[in-house]
Amino acid sequence: MQLLNDCFSVITRAGSRWDREREVAANMDFGHEIAVSRGISALYPPARPTLALHAEERAQTAHAAALELAADGDAATARSRLHDTVRRQLDPETLNDLAVLAHQCGDDADAVALLEALVRLHPEHTAAHENLTALREARQN
Fold first, then answer.
1. Higher pLDDT residue, 87 or 135?
2. How far, in whole angstroms, is CA 30 from its chain's centroid?
3. For residues 70 and 7, what is the distance between their CA atoms, to the nearest angstrom?
4. Sign, CA torsion 43/47/49/50
5. Cα 27 to the center of its chain, rounded Å
6. DSSP per-residue string spanning 31-100
7. Could you tell me which residues come within 8 angstroms of residue 97 by beta carbon, excluding any fewer than 6 positions away?
8. Please, are residues 119 and 100 in contact by the beta-carbon 8 Å criterion?
9. Which residue ranges make up each domain of the chain?
10. Overall average pLDDT of the 5-18 stretch
């Protein structure tokens, strides 16, 4: 069983000539496109480490603030803030790819757990929903 592990999203203005119903096309032979993309990505410089450091510091500050709220008895707000922090930090595509790789390594339980977490954090992630459904169906058979 192969799982979908990538997507392209196109956003248009309502009413533009490109505005249309959602279209899903499965391309199970996506290896060539991946190889070309990797080659092109090598042409760009790496991200500046200072940007990542600032993002990490911001996340740590948000985490600390949430823990303070929890200590003060406001667990609901603390939970909401931590959820938002985690949602911003974790790349949904990376989690989806990690689940697909777990499945390919024969660890379907881990793949399902990762996809369930991804779907909770990013309910709009179509490929994660499709992969989770496919894995659950495969495990039942």
1. 135
2. 19
3. 37
4. positive
5. 19
6. HHHHHHHHHHHTTSPPPPHHHHHHHHHHHHHHHHHHHHHHHTT-HHHHHHHHHHHHHHHS-HHHHHHHHH
7. 5, 6
8. no
9. 1-44+90-141, 46-89
10. 77
